[in-house]
Amino acid sequence: MKKLLSMTIILSVALPCFAENYLLNGGQASLIMYKMEQEIVPANGTKRLILSYVVPKTFSSPSYNQVIRAFDLKYSRNPQFIEKSVDIRGNEIRRVIWMRPKKPIKVTISIEAINSTILKPLEPQAVFPLKDLPENVKVYLAATKQAPSDHPQIVSKAKKLTSLAITQIDAVQQILTWIVDQMTYVQRPLSYDALYSLNTGRGNCQNYSHLSAALMRAAGIPVRIVNGITLKESYHVKISGGYLTMRMAQGRHSWIEVFFPDLGWVPFDPQQMQLFVSNRFIRVEVGLDNKETVGDGTVSWTRIRGSRGRPRFRETIGAEFVTDEVDLFAERQSYGPRKMLFSPPVEASFTAVAFEDAPASPVTVSSQNLQVLTYDEQTVFGNLDFPENVDFLEARGPVEETDDSVMVMSKNFLVETSEYVTTKGQKYSQTFILENPMKLNEVGLALHKYGGSGQLWIELLEDDGSGKPGKLITSSELLSLDEIKFSLGYDWVDFTFTRENILLSPGRYWIALGYTGSPVVNWFFTYGKPVGPADGTRYITMFDETWSRSLVYEFNYRIAGMKGR
Q1: Residues spanned by CATH 3.10.620.30 within the chain?
Q2: Largest CB tally within 10 Å, which of 4, 17, 200, 443?
Q3: Integer distance in angstroms from the first to the last C-alpha of the chain?
């Protein structure tokens, strides 16, 4: 690779901010053969081992439909008991029980699902505030510990957000737009309740769901929490000038359904999707909050007095899309949140939430100024928050002991969000915004090495002025795959630029991952664009002339160097 030595970069750039609301039209239709495999090694002294499952149901809404044609449970060792019940929310539960198990048990859950998403204009007519709700719906206005809709802070915020709303869809849109902008996705928050989310602006899918539910219930809008599975099969949305690639992690997920008197229950994923979820969602269980939706995925056991330990548990998810028809296109709007939000068209009276941030003023740093600055203050920035060195297959929630001495281990919402970035024919890049002059030393990526051989490096690119990677500035030192340590999870891998005098002006840049040979490497990403611009993660194929393909997430990266002053 040719390198440009003693590089000085001079840019005069404006960093404007725009609304990132997209209206989607079209649809998806898929036949999905879904399978979850669980492997359980009982702890010594286990008297009774109980695994709990919920049978997914057929579900219909104006935007998302799920037809379940088969649900099957298979066991490597037959259980002694299978208890069937239906809880107060209508979830059909299977509790599978083994007495004094000593050997490993394998359980396979299989589902045949026909899932479809139809994004056509919706016409909700309900006025706000709502009146005369059905009795079986009013229960979903209840306050809970995780969604405390009666808390003064929640009530005050809900009142402020919906003060001008005259229709229900207007109130819902005001709340969700605010949540999309205010919340930052993190894999492991300190708490999952809505009040924590309101005060910190941080959380995972449970937090997004609980905060949405609490605010809407405080405004008199019924909301129920949905637990299920998201599948990693990506799909493309046509946008002006290219494609937007949508992808979720493959794992357990929490979202919501909102009741509209004239539409029924309508799904929302508060992280990015309004008035719909994609057909990559498998809907399983509903309830008031995630403390109630525990019928699926819970492991519990009793043990001999004096024994200790917990069962070892691994869970893997797979899905085959036997058929998969996708025809979606999106149109960017001039109103809405800073972070990405996707919604079908709505033919109703509602307020277009304006984006109020003014564009930043241009920043100019001359070549002479860069060279005479003193670079003696260390700086590190980027998208830094990810679960380091976590084995996602074995990650589980905390173990709690009930009053009757039953040990309970809840399902885990910690999911592996990553992209296989050394696949042939595709190259990935991530933007970063530099606010102060700096001397670049290192770029770190959150990577997981699975195997293979070869070399990796980072390319530093200019922005082409239209928000895409432009000309190559320089490249990092080559890093052999053998130099990257192997771990069960993701860790920082640093690429050095210290042999060159790379002085950068404030502005927008891109880092792209290059490779040779046959390395098998994943790059971790974070939902919700927590740091950079919404269009700041891109990829290019061997058939593309420009970086016209965008991704709906942000890779984890860190930029290290010396700040100029």
Answers
A1: 119-280+323-343
A2: 443
A3: 32
Instruction: Tell me the average pLDDT across 116-141.
Output: 93
CA proximity to 397, closest of 310, 325, 267, 526: 310
Question: Which residues belong to CATH 2.60.120.260 in the chain?
Answer: 12-17+362-564
Please say if the pLDDT value at position 3 is more than 70. Answer: no
Of 144, 47, 105, 91, the residue nearest 294 (C-alpha): 91
Contact predicate 473/443, CB 8 Å = no
Which pTM value belongs to this model? 0.88
Count the neighbouring beta carbons within 10 Å of the beta carbon of residue 275.
27
Q: What is the pLDDT of residues 162-171, one digit of tens each?
A: 999 999 999 9
How far CA 6 is from CA of 371, 498, 563, in Å, comes to 11, 11, 17
pLDDT class of 9 with cuts at 50, 70, 90:
very low
Domain 12-17+362-564 has CATH 3.40.50.300: no
**Non-local CB neighbours of 327 within 8 Å, separated by 6+ positions:** 26, 27, 28
CATH of domain 119-280+323-343: 3.10.620.30
* Angle, alpha carbons 530-532-537 (nearest 5°): 100
Distance of CA 70 to the CA centre of its chain: 28
Residue position matching structure tokens 């277009």: 352
- Say if residue 547 is exposed, middle or buried (CB neighbours under 10 Å; 0-12, 13-18, 19+): buried
Mean pLDDT along residues 457-480: 95
Query: Are 22 and 342 in contact, with CB atoms under 8 Å apart?
Result: yes
Q: pLDDT-based confidence at 120, cuts 50/70/90?
A: confident
Asked if residue 149 lies in contact with residue 143, where contact means CB atoms within 8 angstroms, the answer is yes
Q: Is the pLDDT of residue 565 over 90?
A: no
Could you tell me if 513 and 452 are in contact, meaning their C-beta atoms sit under 8 angstroms apart?
Answer: no
Q: Are 128 and 166 in contact (CB under 8 A)?
A: yes
- DSSP sequence for 143-188: --SSS-TTSHHHHHHHHHHTTT--BHHHHHHHHHHHHHHH-EE-SS
Q: What band does 313 get if pLDDT is binned at 50, 70 and 90?
A: very high
Indicate where the chain has its CATH 2.60.40.2250 domain(s).
Answer: 28-116+298-321
pLDDT tens digits, residue range 427-452?
999 999 999 999 999 999 999 999 99
> What CATH code would you report for 28-116+298-321?
2.60.40.2250
